[in-house]
Amino acid sequence: MPSTRFTYAPAPESRSVVSLRPAYGLFVDGEFVEPRDGSMFTTASPSSEEVLAEVAAAGPGDVDRAVAAAARAQRDTWGPMPGKERAKYLFRIARLMQERSRELAVLESMDNGKPIREARDVDVPLAAAHFFYYAGWADKLAYAGLGPSPRPIGVAGQVVPWNFPLLMAAWKLAPALAAGNTCVLKPAETTPLTALLLAEIVQQAELPPGVVNVVTGAGDTGAALVAHPAVDKVAFTGSTEVGKAIQRSLAGTGKRLTLELGGKAANIVFDDAPLSQAVEGIVNGIFFNQGHVCCAGSRLLVQESIADAVVDALKLRLETLRLGDPLDKNTDIGAINSPGQLAKIEELASSGEAEGATRWSPSCPVPERGYWFRPTIFTGVAPAFRIAREEIFGPVLSVLTFRTPDEAVVKANNTTYGLSAGVWTEKGSRILWMAQHLRAGVVWANTFNRFDPTSPFGGYRESGFGREGGRHGLEAYLDV
Amino acid sequence: MSDAPKVPATPGELAAVAVPPPSTSGERARLAVQKTYKLFLGGAFPRSESGRSYAVRAANGAHLANAALASRKDVRDAVVAAGKARGPWSAATAYNRGQVLYRVAEMLEDRRDQFAELVASGEGVTHAAALTTVAVAVDRWVWYAGWADKIAQVAGSSNPVAGPYFNFSLPEPTGVVGILAPQESSLLGLVSVLAPVLTAGNTAVVVASELRPLPAVALAEVLATSDLPGGVANILTGRTVELAPVLARHRDVDALDLAGAPVDIEVELEQASADNVKRVLRRDATQGAWDAEPTPRRMLAFVETKTVWHPIGI
Amino acid sequence: MSTDGEGARRPDGASTAQAGEMTGRAPGSTTYLPAGSEAGEAAIADVARSETALRRFLFGLPGVDQVGAESRAAALATRSIKADAKLWAIDTAISMVDLTTLEGADTPGKVTSLCGKARRPDPTDPTVPAAAAVCVYPDLVATAKRALDGTSVAVASVATAFPSGRAGLAVKLADVREAVAAGADEVDMVIDRGAFLAGRYGLVLDEVRAVKNVCGRAHLKVILETGELATYDNVRRASWIAMLGGADFVKTSTGKVSPAATLPVALVMLEAVRDFAASGGPRVGVKVAGGIRSTKDAIRYLVLVNETVGDDWLDPALFRFGASSLLNDLLMQRSKQRSGAYAGADDFSLE
Known about the structure:
heterotrimer; A: alpha/beta; 6-stranded mixed β-sheet; B: alpha/beta; Aldehyde Dehydrogenase, Chain A, domain 1; 3-stranded antiparallel β-sheet; 11 helices; 10 strands; disordered N terminus
């Protein structure tokens, strides 16, 4: 538990930088409008359960309007616009995001429950950087290696999840717009607010109406968007279950599709790993963002010869984690995003105990209101246990062991997922050998959870297909 | 038509021009504070160590200003500054370089009118045409700024060698690039030769257009207010025939761009460059008015490709 | 911390650190010394029985990934310390300062002045704690002792041909003996970096032990000069050599070479003392010196200590700042925390 002598004192980031409106409309054709055949619902802070605002749930008619606006804008304005002009709009958006970064970070933390330090230091800077990077591609598409004259596809229907609301919106919008497509974005039900603030920024950037539209709502809004006949390309990040449903529904429609789904990544630690940094990598891998990360290192595969030492060091390290008010600048672990997600995590954690694994959590105190789950590790985990196979999407680590590099690879690949993996060893050739053999779209060696707009991200197998980031991220949005 | 200007006889001759009368608008006019045009070296604005200057004339012959007349010692100092700035600039992340260069574009845009005036008077074009040129120059700079974090992806690769080795190639900046800026296109041409060098991670010593140096000095002021570290770009004004050979012979200059080289010394400059095997980008005789869309050529001319091997095994 | 107790000057402030005691540690912690043996003469003798054995031991320690270590240190530097916690941190930092003057131009007058400052950093405010020690060259120890007679402030002396360490062993030991004879409570030695970088680890270890032998009751700080060691792996190995040699403290720098103390270097050293204690060894302190000028920096180090090795080390008996201008910045920040207004530089004596 944290020090009893050096207590840090509360260091809350002020909420005053954010001016919350009581109610938000949809962002369609350049304006905020009331839903015509939708309704209103509320979004709350998962750390205090306080209602933050009312938000519109777009009905099918609203979705139709948004898609029509996007189609018209693509045909008449955005599609014909020279790349260098599109570039300048995207540079503007990136700059505005930087200027309003504090506001975005605080709002994200309030709506999602993640620590302000992460929203401030990771989410928002990366989101702005994504716009910067893709802005520069808008007038260089001929050099992207995808053919001499790539063309946009048309209207992109984009559905993003609640774990990195603003960042996922940036990952979707930036490449699509750079390539000359227009967008209709559907943020997650529990985290609509930063997407709406981004819509304000889009207005401030004077982006032509209809180029970006935001239709808030729940699952049915997303389904309506994905099914809309005038949507030419669908991009979805979210649960594997819904991803499969979307893939089924798009069969035969001619719509392009990319999916970024779940994962059950193995974080593999060899006996010659730089130990202290490996412990940091394990902690970062599963407890960053409360484990609400598709590429989380949720399985620790530790070489048997050092397993005890690593677990001991890990437990010691976990005792210094600070769980609490997301707006406190010293908080490491924030709130679980919703009661529904909390229930799922609890159910799976209970199954771990039921199946015979040993459960351990540090002794950090938990606030009374809000949705919280202590960082938890399970040792004595067999590969067949549910906690070793199913995605928990929470701060729960399952620890398994291996003896040889071959065995590590076999165990790591023994999953239907394939999003990411971690490798910890001082031996360069082994890093490269492991990278070659791991069936994962992202391999982190001696690090974990590093993201960059230039670095392609995406999965193998049931973790989805398509890549976001880098030159490769353009492919999904171009006709070549 | 050749891009090379007629070389004036002496600075003294240039000085013998009529000074235009102060503006009168009815009542007693306000006397303007005249600007001193200095060199841009190591992030600062010094005069030439030689203490010399020369008169700059508008296209219509009117006296515009005195510009510093750089000496070979100024070139030497600029090369030292560019050499010092090399390490930090090439070690900065590509993202950071892109951010800084985009900021330069912001500052350029902000001074659109000032640049248009300098281009109009220097090149003898209408204000409207000058504004268009400035707009193209700003967009050109933005184009290059956006390349900073993409060169490695386009010019680099992992190579599928026939063996258990991971093999990758990376473009790295060549180093200090000496640039002879185009003589006629005093802003757009200048931007077109400087931006690619910087975005690729190099540092530069620029010899501005001899007869039309004022946009270059104004650009220096933009660079100085854009978070560009001192010494990354250095801009010297003066006589091209005097300064170019110093750059060409200097062994701490790694590459030379002959865009604005006087035709009669082009060959001599390339020969001198061979002394330390400089990478030379020859003047393109077909180069028109610099309006045409650029290609990555000017960045790739100033990168070195490094290829690394590493075994793959347990 | 060495077990010799009586007679030696110790800094004020209750010390909860006990030799060989460990708190809050999970069982079966990482041990690097041969299993089944207690750290003590036997284990040390075992590891240090030959150059080869020592080298094998040192190279068997886990490596340090530079990027990972630096990013951990940077993450800890984002901690925001406010209000009462900040005041506590400032006072704690003040009590950990080894107020230092190590100039060729030092005179008895200068040293006496400094001692006055160390015992009463702010004469207008008696609640300000005294510094932990004053740090001077050996020939000024006697002056410092006189000036600090009857106070809780210890006298630390650099020795062993500080700062370069380039002299024969006999000269270096004579240097230490003089400092001890003049009454130094603490000795700050430098390791032979040349020997270390040439791979002569046994020689480095032998020198530490030899110095420890002539320290008598004075506690020994071993300066690694991390700026010259260049890599974090070397810092880790040098820390272990120092601890195996009997160091009471491991210290980053002489302050005469840049870079001096940095957060990632301190992180690696704090992990080394943590692991040494976990292996059954005594608790060894850490001193960061050189380049620490602001309260913000000092507080960052305290956070590092707190979250790496635990709050037992947040005590002058186990953590020190080697600094000079830091003290006034701490006083200014202390004054601001209490009054709400920024103090001026001239509100405090410069020495």
